[in-house]
UniProtKB/TrEMBL annotation:
Protein name according to UniProt: 3-phosphoshikimate 1-carboxyvinyltransferase
Family: Belongs to the EPSP synthase family.
Subunit structure: Monomer.
Binding sites annotated in the UniProt record for phosphoenolpyruvate: K27, G96, R124, Q169, R342, R383, K408
Originating species: Pseudonocardia hydrocarbonoxydans
Amino acid sequence: MGAVTSPWTAPVATGPVRGRVSVPGSKSVTNRALLLAALSGGPASVSGAPATRDTALMVGALRALGVPVTVDGEHVAIGAYDGLRGGGAVDCGLAGTVMRFVPPAAALADGPVAFDGDPRARERPMGTVLHALRALGAAVDGDGLPFTLRGSGALPGGDVVIDASASSQFVSGLLLSAARYDKGVTVHHDGKPVPSLPHIEMTVEMLRTAGVHVDDSSANTWHVAPGPIAARDWAVEPDLSNASVFLAAAALTGGSVTVAGWPAGSTQPGAEILSVLAQAGCTVEPGPDGMTVHGPDALLGVDVDLHDASELTPTVAALAALATTPSRIRGVAHIRGHETDRIAALAHEITAVGGDVTETDDGLEIRPAPLHGGPWGAYADHRMATAGALVGLRVPGVEIDDIGCTDKTIPDFPGRWTALLAP
């Protein structure tokens, strides 16, 4: 379906939500796999790639660099080619994986590559990766979107010191292309703890799968040796952060929801939702059919540090707003620089529907309060929109102003959500 731009009234659950859902593939795995497939020189492929805006933006970025890409549903094929091309323009949209992962690859192009994105993307932190690329030998015009990389077909590489406390994507972006640099790259982080470390672990694991030598034995240091990136066929597992929204529906309604294809082991931070739901009183049950969550009679508040799984914050905040005891979400100061300032946005929207919320420096404190319907702002942020849908399960009249922004990671979220709630 096309993007829904008029207000969407979130459907109310008439009873315990019960069902089985399949969620699209992980956007984090997908865009890493697409870039590695392209940097291998092809031919290579990615299967299970979700038909989302973030995927389309990465495909468009690779094509702008001269990479032959063919998309057939959830299968993306990378054709063989000889060298990245300059002269093109990359639209980053609002995809952090495009704006942080593609510039280090574009530095290998044989000419200039222009980058820009959505208005909000121009506000997101970019200086760290651009300053790092200059230190590694790249020529860059600008310190944030829009900017231009002036590639010369190669990059010296070497050692670089960065402060990645605003985003783990700064580290991942440099590591993904590092093997193609003349001397490889050694990234040293100097600053507050890096958020979402599982995302860096995901990057390292995928690089090793592609035959790249990565040494991460020293804290806050990652060394990638120069060498080829193996062309291979990547299979993408379900996006567990997206899955968390559907599991949360069971938690909020005392129902039972199964997510099909839940991996036995995963580097995705979204897997942490299981421990959060257990703390809230849910029963978590893995099985051959997938991962099942059974909701409790009374949902309990939680006290959680989501520093390494901060993308779960909107979902957990929605649960907390409807819990029977107070909640505290900690360790997520860096999400003020995500698609929107998610801490401020969540506090504002939950308060607007009657919630009792306090912003802290690194998170939220949420106390039980009777909620009522009303407008819910999505801020063009897919996770803010799905948080509103969760609140709307229990609160009639929650109207989300831009449910269409969920196309960023979940194609036809309204249709999937309505189908799950169908008797």
